[in-house]
Each structure stands twice: as C-alpha cells, then as structure tokens.
Amino acid sequence: MYTLHHHVEESYYSVNGLEKKIEETRKKMYDSYLSEQDYDQVLRFSQELDRLLNKWTELKSPQVNR
C-alpha cells in the first residue's frame, strides 16, 4: 500500500543519491574546465548538472496535487 511516509522516505533516499550525483557532476565539470578540455565537454557536464539540479528541485518542492 502506498503511504505518505513511504513516499517521503523514498524521496529522502532519492534526494540523497541525487545530491551525491550533483556533487560528482559539478566536480567533473570544474575539473574539465581546469584541465582546459574542449568547451563541448565542459558544456555537456554543465547541461547534465542543470538536469540534475532541476530534478533535485522537483523532488524537494512540496508535493502539491500529486
């Protein structure tokens, strides 16, 4: 049975895993920038970071009408 507690617990773990992935991607992007890799590689990491941050925001916002 689906319960709010189950959903909150599931979101908690999803958010924690997502935060770890965000930090990993941020580090990869910054390391790429520092090592002067081509701009396309830095851009790809930046776009992935944007996608992850949008997902994190979605998970952290109140669950209204869901």
TrEMBL record:
One Gene Ontology MF term: protein dimerization activity
GO biological process: regulation of sporulation
Signal sequence annotation: none
Entries under Pfam families matching the protein: SpoOE-like (PF09388)
Gene3D superfamilies: Helix-loop-helix DNA-binding domain (4.10.280.10)
Name of the protein described by the UniProt record: Aspartyl-phosphate phosphatase Spo0E family protein
Source species taxonomy: Bacteria, Bacillati, Bacillota, Bacilli, Bacillales
